[in-house]
Design a protein that fits this description.
Residues 30-141 form the Phytocyanin domain. Residues 145-190 are annotated as: Disordered. The protein has 4 helices and 10 strands; from the N terminus they run αβββαββββββαβα. The chain has helices at 2-21, 53-58, 127-130, 173-178; strands at 31-33, 42-43, 48-49, 62-63, 67-72, 77-83, 86-93, 105-110, 115-120, 134-140.
């Protein structure tokens, strides 16, 4: 009887341990600073990037709703996604801090699409990318998109119509009255 009770307790302990180990709650949303303390920088003097960005990215876990914070000094950052045999390129930002050229700025990028995304610098005719200013990430589902990021995109930009010129304007009723046009007869004036 004592042996049966011991086996039951061991089985119960195993189930409790397994339940605690399999935490069903997804990870919290995270802000990732690209490159860690090194930031997103390239040193022209020796043609090297500040850190190994691919190595940095491989040690992170990315999910929908997370943010990438790219601390940089006016370097272009290009995002590329491959979906259904089409490439989607988007320039995320060339920092405009309003200060000097080398003033650091931060570009914040929400992660809103699951799957693999590539980030790189296209400056220096691709030399910065070739020398390590690049990384790729795989974005998982996590908690899903928070409601403030889960909105449809804004409508496409359209140029405003040019203002109407005097040549395009129709003759107004006041102009016909002034010039003695048809409008005077209806007013009872002969």
């Amino acid at each position: 009887m004592k042996a049966v009770r011991t086996v039951q307790l061991l089985i119960a302990a195993a189930f409790i341990t397994a339940a605690l180990a399999a935490d069903p709650s997804p990870p919290p949303y995270t802000n990732h600073t690209v490159g860690g303390a090194a930031g997103w920088f390239f040193f022209d003097k020796n043609a090297t990037s500040a850190t190994n960005y691919s190595d940095w990215a491989s040690k992170q876990s990315f999910n929908l709703g997370d943010f990438l914070n790219i601390q940089q000094d006016d370097l272009p950052v290009v995002q590329r996604r491959r979906r259904r045999r089409k490439r989607h390129l988007r320039v995320l930002g060339v920092g405009d801090s309003g200060g000097g050229f080398d003033d650091p700025v931060t570009v914040t990028v929400p992660l809103k699409v699951e799957g693999t995304t590539f980030y790189f610098s296209d400056a220096g005719e691709g030399m910065q990318c070739f020398k390590g200013l690049r990384f790729s990430i795989v974005v998982g589902h996590g908690r899903g998109l928070p409601s403030d990021l889960n909105r449809p995109p804004p409508p496409p930009y359209r140029k405003a119509s040019p203002p109407q010129t005097a040549a395009d304007a129709t003759t107004s009723q006041g102009e016909r009255f002034y010039n003695g046009g048809e409008g005077r007869r209806g007013a009872g004036v002969e």
